[in-house]
Write a structure and sequence with these properties.
The protein has 307 residues and is α+β, with helices and mostly antiparallel strands. The protein has seven helices and 17 strands. β8, α4 and β9 form a beta-alpha-beta unit. The structure holds 4'-deoxy-4'-aminopyridoxal-5'-phosphate. The site of 4'-deoxy-4'-aminopyridoxal-5'-phosphate (PMP) has 13 residues, from α5.
Length: 307
């Protein structure tokens, strides 16, 4: 049976074929929606599914709705309950992805954020690797700078801001790379096209600060915790220059979609020996245990989907 079969749409769970929006929908015209991407992991050995850090994603989503004046009449608990219900109805036996989307459902024409109806839909889909995690990636620095907080805030996970991401990812692929690293408009390292970035040099791990036009990643936060608690490696949040990328011992991306993805080269400069570095390798292993509720101490991050 093809999945997904259901969506949460206009206040209830309906067959996905009935979840259709009007072509005049205001957010479709102007990209003024806030969305999330959440993963659920299937554990074949236990025949159980766990949603990873669901609550943190919904906390971020409601914060971002506030930035855009989008009002959703659902609490974090409601959103978590609906998500688990949707996943249970799909009866997945593979990893899945959840896409909540908060938008101006009004059909009135005008790019503004007030005096319009708002709504939320949620759907799920099967999803394996978003980027290849079995080999380190060939990466370029994008010629398209990241949108900034004063333009279309990257913190907001705003649908329209992903035009910027689409330019970056497309340019990278067209030029023969797997992914892009994007810079802020003042030339500092921000993140990947749709993932956060970590830098390792002489044992010191750094990542750009949340004020450098990044999405405040839920995975980034998990990685900082795992590095500190499991690998006893403190992480410094600091500004990173482009050329620090070229001389790094290790670089890796992280994100809900990307998970932990190693980087083999940046702009044709080999990183380390071009393979997975030791920190990346250890973190990949720990992270994949954490998301499947197999890492003692991290159980609070995993919500079981009971069917
Ligand atoms: N940056 C951007 C621009 C993203 O789209 C994503 C994916 N949501 C991330 C970083 C990673 O964030 P998270 O770990 O919360 O998925």
């Amino acid at each position: 049976m093809e999945k997904p079969q259901y969506a949460f749409f206009e206040g209830k769970i309906v067959p996905i074929s009935e979840a259709k929006i009007d072509i005049r929908t205001n957010s479709l015209q102007y990209g003024t929606a806030v969305f999330e991407g959440i993963r659920a992991y299937w554990c074949g050995d236990e025949k159980k599914m766990f949603v990873f850090r669901m609550r943190e994603h919904y906390v971020r989503m409601l914060d971002n709705c506030k930035i855009l004046f989008i009002q959703i009449p659902l609490s974090i608990d409601d959103l978590c309950r609906i998500t688990v219900e949707l996943l249970a109805k799909e009866n997945y036996t593979e990893d899945a992805y959840i896409r909540p989307f908060c938008y101006f459902s009004s059909t009135r024409i005008s790019p503004k954020l007030i005096d319009m109806e708002t709504d939320i839909f949620i759907y799920t889909m099967p999803l394996g690797d978003y980027v290849d995690t079995t080999r380190p990636l060939k990466v370029c620095v994008s010629s398209w700078p990241r949108v900034s907080d004063g333009m279309t805030p990257p913190r907001g996970k705003i649908s329209g801001a992903y035009v910027n991401t689409a330019f970056q990812k497309t340019e990278a692929i067209r030029n023969g790379f797997d992914e892009a690293i994007v810079l802020t408009s003042d030339g500092h390292v921000a993140e990947g096209s749709a993932m956060n970035l970590f830098h390792v040099k002489n044992g010191a791990v750094s990542t750009p600060p949340t004020t450098d036009d990044i999405l405040e990643g839920v995975t980034r936060d998990a990685v900082i915790t795992l590095l500190e608690k499991e690998l006893h490696t403190p992480v410094r949040e600091r500004k990173l220059d482009r050329t620090e990328l070229y001389t790094a011992d290790e670089l890796f991306f992280c994100g809900t979609g990307a998970q932990i993805a190693g980087i083999a080269s940046v702009d044709h400069r080999t990183i380390g020996d071009g393979g997975f570095g030791p920190v990346t390798k250890k973190l990949q292993h720990i992270y994949m245990r954490a998301v499947r509720n197999k890492l003692p101490g991290c159980e609070r991050w995993c919500t079981e989907v009971k069917t």
